[in-house]
Design brief:
Belongs to the constitutive coactivator of PPAR-gamma family. This protein is an alpha/beta fold. Helices cover 36% and strands 19% of the residues. It has four helices and seven strands. The strands form three sheets. It has a three-stranded mixed β-sheet. A two-stranded parallel ribbon has the order 1-2.
């Protein structure tokens, strides 16, 4: 089995405003968190750092891809257009050899992919040698929304 990591290298023109808005929201959330930490000091136990606020600095995706590429049985593909659509297209080409797509985008519910795994939900237990995640089969999603 091989893991394929697709990195969203470009922001397409049609998604630029959405990308800028989300990036600004994350920056605001991180500024607010920083201010709360300054006010409350290091003993602040009520601060929960939501991983959805994290984003890689500009230009670092190339290096993140290099880290993944150094892992045995892991291939890295840098998307040239809309990464979601490239992932779905690549999964379609692989057919039965594609078991799941992991991502952070609810768009995958509308695409015919075998299993969508919420990337943020992935948790590997080295001790138990198991991988836990939250996912949804496309057919189950369609059944749940009665389509």
């Amino acid at each position: 089995m091989e893991v394929i990591v697709m990195i969203d290298g470009n922001v397409t023109t049609d998604k630029l405003n959405t990308w800028l808005s989300r990036r600004a929201e994350r920056m605001d959330a991180l500024r607010e968190l920083n201010e709360r930490l300054k006010r409350n000091g290091s003993i602040c136990e009520s601060v929960f750092v939501d991983s959805s606020n994290w984003f890689a600095p500009n230009g670092s995706y190339f290096y993140i891809g290099q880290v993944f590429a150094s892992i045995h049985h892991c291939r890295v593909i840098y998307a040239q257009t809309d990464c979601d659509r490239e992932m779905v297209g690549y999964a379609s080409v692989l057919g039965d050899q594609c078991y799941a797509i992991a991502g952070n985008d609810s768009d995958f519910f509308i695409f015919d992919v075998p299993l969508y795994i919420q990337l943020r939900s992935l948790h590997f237990s080295y001790r138990a040698k198991c991988l836990d995640f939250v996912g949804c089969y496309h057919r189950d999603f369609l059944s749940a929304v009665e389509l």
